[in-house]
Hints:
The protein has 10 helices and no strands. It is mostly helical. The two termini are about 45 Å apart.
Amino acid sequence: MEQLNKWRRPLLLASILFLVSIVCEQTLTEHWRQFCFASSMALDSLWKRILKLFGDNDYYLYVWGCILVSQIPFWTIGGTFIFIDCYNWPKWLRKYKVQPGTNEPLNLYRLVETIKVVMINQWFISNPLFFISYYVKKLTNTMPDMYDFPSFQRILVEFLIVMVIDEIALYYLHRLMHHPKLYARVHKKHHEWPAPVAIVFAYSTKTEYFLNTIPIGLGPVLINPHLVTLWMWYVFVHVRGLYNHTGYQLPWFPSSQHHDYHHMASNACYGRTLAIDWLIGTDKGFRAYVARKKALLQKGTEKTVSKTE
Length: 309
C-alpha cells in the first residue's frame, strides 16, 4: 500500500501530461511548423544579404569567406586568452586552470615566437590552400552550393559527417606523428608547450600544420557540403581547437583536460574527443590521472574538515 501511495502522484502527473500532449499535439505541431518556416525565412534573408555583401561572387564567398570564418574566431578567442594569461586577470578564472601555477606569468618571449610561427603557418599554408581548393573546384566543376540557404536537416547531416571523418582521420594521423621516426622532426615542436595556451592550437612545424589540414579538409572534399556548412565547420574547428589548448576547464563547457594531459604525457588521448581513445584504450593513462586528482582533492577536503572539527 505504501509503495502504491509513493507512485500515485508521479503516475497521475504522467497521465495528465500524456493526455495534454494528445490534445495539444496538433497545436504544438502547427506552432513548430510556423517557427521553422519563420526561422527559415529569416535565415534565408540574412544569407541573401551576405551574398550581396560579397557581390554574389563565388571567389570572394569561397576563398575570403573561408579565410574570414577561420581568422576572426581564431584571433578573437586566442587574443582574449592571451590577455587573460598575460595579466592573470580576471583572478577568479585561475581556479579553473587544469595545471595550476603554469604560465603565471606567461613568458612573453615564447609568446611572441609562438605568434610568429602561427601567423606563418596560417598565411603560408592554410590560407593559400583555400585559393588552391577554389581553382581546383572551378576546374572540376565541383563548386559547393551557395546561393540558396540550405535546410536545417542538410546542415546537420553534412556537419555530422565531416565531424566523424575528421575525428577518425585525426586520431590515426596524430598517433602516426608520435612514431619515434616522425615525432622529433614533425610533432615535437607542438609539445614545446607542456601546459598549452590557446593559440598553441596552430603552433607546429610546417609539415605538421599541413598534415593537420588533411583531417579537417577530408570530409568537405568527400561530400562537398553547402558553403554555409563549410563556414560553420571551419568556425567550429578553430573554436574547439583553441578551447582544447586554453589550459582551462571552464564550467558548462566540454572537458579540455584530455588534451592538456596529452601535452603533459604525450602517450595518450590522441583524438579531438575521447571517443576513439576510449574504443582503442589509449585513454587509460588519462583516466588514472583524473582518478588520482580526485583522490588527492578528496583527501585535502577531508583534512580541512577534520581541522575545523
